[in-house]
Description:
With 128 residues, the chain is mainly beta. 0% of the residues lie in helices and 47% in strands. It has strands spanning 3-7, 10-13, 18-19, 21-25, 33-39, 46-51, 58-60, 68-73, 78-83, 92-99, 117-118, 122-127. The strands form two sheets. Strands 2, 5, 6, 7, 10, 11 and 12 form a seven-stranded mixed β-sheet that branches. Strands 1, 3, 4, 8 and 9 form a five-stranded antiparallel β-sheet that branches. Strand 6 (46-51) and strand 7 form a beta hairpin. The radius of gyration is 13 Å and the shape is globular.
Amino acid sequence: xxxxxxxxxGLVQAGGSLRLSCAALGRTFSMNNMGxxxxxxxxxxxxxxxxxGSGGITLSADSVKGRFTISRDNAKNxxxxxxxxxxxxxxxxxxxAATWPKSPTWGLGGALNEYSYWGPGTQVTVSS
Length: 128
């Protein structure tokens, strides 16, 4: 069982930056590939970025490539998406997710059904 708690959301002006955090409760964090997703009201959950358990491989969605990065600190059981050059269209709820990888890059393609554990979400609002 993996419990996830996101933090770091808030209000920021367009062009600004936010660093979200996702803390995982569990002893096997370094074995989990981790992902970030976002979902606006009435829309499907959308992949943002993912990282392997070792942190050696990361992947970002085309919509955020060059603006968002993802990293992790396994000693702190935490994964960090760094969001730069934020735009008003980035406004939504952001969710952290964890998976037990069936292959080294399991989950990095952003498939929702490859993730077993989800956090409650944190709101990001970007003002124009």
